[in-house]
Write a structure and sequence with these properties.
Elements (H helix, E strand, L loop, with lengths): L1 H10 L1 H15 L16 E3 L2 E3 L9 E8 L21 E3 L8 E6 L5 E8 L7 E5 L1 H6 L8 E11 L12 E3 L7 E8 L2 H11 L6 E7 L4 E10 L2 H13 L6 E4 L1
Parallel strand pairs: 3-7, 4-6
Antiparallel strand pairs: 1-2, 3-8, 4-7, 5-6, 5-8, 8-9, 10-12, 10-13, 11-12
């Protein structure tokens, strides 16, 4: 077998060109992002594959295989900007909104935990959620590495996120009712935000600035419209994009 490969490499240079072509072609696969669905966050790409996060977790339930990740990733940044703590009660999911709390039940022994999704993954075929080390230990998943689970969305916690324990209460995962708006820009310079507001006021209603203090910096987020349901605002998303706001996205207020 080794001799055969050596002959191909030495005496058939077109074989190398063919391999190079296949490699480059596979690298270009899915290079164009999918069209962003109305009401959905931006898709993202990992290992050549595109993933589309869902806009909310209402009625979300999923059955499949869970894995876990530990020391290799401990201290690294998670998808939402936090530092991964293998001893915290967190998880990674490919499409659930970051910040969603989920109940994960081990189908083998019915043990269950409540975790906060703060990362993306697992990007391995046939796995639906990546558990922190502590979560995996509580579910008896550390030894086998993978376990069959049922994942059920609970909602988002009231108050600041918790690294350990279960929040006292949740805001239900219900985006059918509430107050929704479009965010069309975010600026560190308040003057730039005010100029955009002035421009938008000529053609749009309920244009306003939402101030976000991240700690070291303050952002002035320009928002357009007021809607009482997600279903209602999704209808107008295409209209806003057609007039030039391609990066506009829906937020709950």
């Amino acid at each position: 077998m080794k001799t055969r490969i050596f002959q191909l490499l030495c005496f058939r240079p077109y074989f190398l060109l063919f391999i190079l072509f296949v490699f480059l072609s596979s690298g270009c696969e899915n290079s164009t992002p999918p069209a962003r669905l109305p009401g959905h966050p931006k898709p993202y790409k990992v290992l050549g594959k595109w993933y589309q996060p869902i806009p909310h977790a209402k009625d979300f339930r999923q059955v499949g295989i869970a894995s876990w990740y530990g020391k290799k990733f401990h201290g690294q940044k998670t998808a939402n900007g936090e530092t991964y703590d293998m001893y915290a009660m967190t998880a990674a999911h490919k499409t659930l909104p970051l910040g969603t709390y989920v109940r994960v039940q081990n189908k083998n022994n019915n043990k269950e935990v409540v975790l906060r999704v703060n990362d993306r993954g697992p990007f391995v075929k046939n796995r639906i959620i990546d558990l922190s080390y502590t979560a995996a230990k509580k579910l008896d998943a550390v030894g086998p590495g993978t376990i069959p689970v049922e994942v059920t969305a609970l909602g988002v916690a009231e108050g600041p996120p918790q690294k350990t324990g279960t929040p006292d209460s949740f805001v239900p995962v219900d985006y059918d009712t509430g107050t929704f708006t479009f965010q069309v820009g975010a600026f560190k310079d308040k003057g730039n935000a005010e100029r955009l507001v002035q421009k938008l006021n000529e053609k749009h209603k309920n244009v306003h600035i939402s101030v976000f203090n991240s700690g070291p910096e303050i952002f002035y987020r320009v928002r357009v419209g007021k809607y009482s349901s997600l279903h209602q605002i999704v209808k107008d998303e295409k209209i806003l994009k057609d007039v030039g706001f391609q990066d506009a996205f829906i937020v709950a207020e």
